[in-house]
Design a protein that fits this description.
alpha/beta, 19 strands, elongated, Leucine Aminopeptidase, subunit E, domain 1, Aminopeptidase, eight-stranded mixed sheet
């Protein structure tokens, strides 16, 4: 795991030795707060609007900087600080929140996280040394989220030839063991017996599937502590199988393991926070390929739950990966069950790339997820589990099909498919995410993304700490 502390933060620097970034509210008296340099800023076009950042000259070059943020914003918003790594010159910098009244502690956490989100790079130049922001006291939680985000982004960005099912499983195992979890990596005949539907998805690839099962209990968690179960889709590359994708749609299919990367990141944050919970994590690591061993349209697959599934489209493989894992997760009667997957293009048609779709069987659980997403500037949007569409999955030759027989509501019918494998007594939510930034913006570099990380982590904390 790469540590943001080694790239964009500094803990062992005397604050007085660093240049200062003054954080100012976007109020009418910004000029008075800046002092004699206000005239210089006006000459350069600076207007004191929220989001503006400017460097101030000194005798030896850049002496300091100012950043203006929205004074009325009460949501936690790390993106207000994400521009700094791209603007500040190399060297050490200290953030000055004295003009922000009583908001300094919360802003410090947002600033550290925002700097880390904005400093993230992958590929050539990723290790390039730039500005280093002196880390204030009391920002441990921001550092946890930053580390988890960087790990998730790195995993999604790795090309498929470097991150296959075995490599993803081993990376997850190493990170979870280092955090204190017990981990089992399952493959071979044991996997085929326990997760037959998942095994059918991976049968077409020479890179054999793996399932990661991890368990952990917090230091304050007794045997009756809430059991939180997480499940992630880890399709390391998706050709579409025999229903092969066009080349343009295949270009980004290394990101089809984004659900597994997200759930791994969420699990690590819960462990690092030492929440008073029992935690289970399941990751289905597999490749959907084309060969003489691959599943075919029309095949009927057996699932762990005993239901049979007719394959209507081999490119709808994610739900086949998840169904066995959800079945196993429900066997332990979790208090909360959450899965995440880059599951459907239909969710992107409905909500675009930035908003993961949430489906769920428990209104309170879903509302907590949505509120946590709003409060952390990591928004989610709920779509319905519309019961009338459930019959669209029925088949004459099997218990259900992996795709609907209607060309509509694809994200909803995919969620309804998954619901067939979740016990009605379990509070369950499903996240259909894009796991990618198509274009770059401050704090949102083009490439892999952990959409929902802050929202889910905060929701779990709120539910289990009450």
């Amino acid at each position: 795991m790469r540590d943001p502390l080694e790239f964009c933060l500094a803990q062992d620097v005397v604050p007085e030795a660093a240049r200062v970034v003054r954080v100012l509210p976007d109020t009418a008296d910004w000029a008075a707060a800046i002092g004699p340099m206000a005239g210089y800023l006006r000459e350069t076009g600076f207007a004191g609007r929220s989001g503006e950042c400017a460097l101030l000259p000194g005798g030896d070059g850049v002496a300091s900087a100012v950043l203006v943020i929205d004074a009325a914003e009460r949501r936690r918003d790390p993106y207000r600080f994400a521009c700094l790594p791209g603007i500040l010159p190399k060297g050490f910098w200290r953030l000055d929140f004295s003009a922000m009244e009583a908001e300094g502690a919360a802003l410090a956490e947002d600033a550290v996280l925002g700097v880390c989100l904005g400093a993230y790079r992958f590929g050539p130049g990723a290790a390039k040394e730039g500005a280093r922001v002196v880390t204030p006291q009391g920002v441990e939680d921001a550092l946890m989220l930053a580390r988890a985000c960087w790990l998730g982004r790195d995993l999604v960005n790795l090309p498929a030839n470097q991150l296959g099912p075995v490599e993803l499983a081993e990376q997850a195992r190493a990170e979870l063991i280092a955090a204190g979890a017990s981990v089992e990596v399952i493959g071979g005949a044991m996997l085929e017996g326990a997760y037959p539907c998942l095994a059918a998805v991976g049968a077409g690839s020479d890179r054999h599937p793996r399932v990661v099962v991890a368990r952990w209990s917090g230091s304050r968690a007794g045997p009756d502590a809430p059991l939180v179960s997480l499940v992630g889709k880890g399709v390391c590359f998706d050709t579409g199988g025999y229903d092969i994708k066009p080349s343009s749609a295949m270009l980004r299919m290394k990101k089809d393991m984004g659900g597994a990367a997200l759930m791994l990141a969420v699990a690590l944050v819960a462990i690092w926070r030492d929440l008073p919970i029992r935690l289970e994590l399941r990751l289905g690591c597999v490749e959907n390929s084309v060969s003489g061993h691959a599943m075919r349209p029309g095949d009927i697959l057996r699932t762990r739950a005993g239901l049979t599934v007719e394959v209507g489209n081999t490119d709808a493989e994610g739900r086949l990966v998840l169904c066995d894992l959800l079945t196993e997760a429900c066997e332990a009667e979790p208090d909360l069950l959450l899965d995440a997957a880059t599951l459907t293009g239909a969710a992107r048609v409905a909500l675009g790339p930035d908003l993961p779709a949430v489906f769920g069987t428990d209104d309170a659980f879903c509302e907590t997820l949505l509120r946590a997403g709003y409060d952390t500037r990591d928004d989610l949007w709920r779509l319905p589990l519309w019961d009338a569409y459930d019959a669209w999955l029925d088949r004459k030759t099997a218990d259900l099909g992996n795709v609907s027989d209607k060309p509509m509501a694809g994200a909803i019918t995919a969620a309804l498919f998954l619901r067939r494998f979740v016990k009605s007594s379990v509070k369950w939510a499903h996240l259909d995410t894009y796991a990618w930034n198509d274009t770059a913006a401050p704090g949102r570099p083009a490439g892999g993304e952990t959409l929902g990380l802050r929202a889910i982590s905060e929701a779990i904390r709120r539910i289990t700490m009450n």
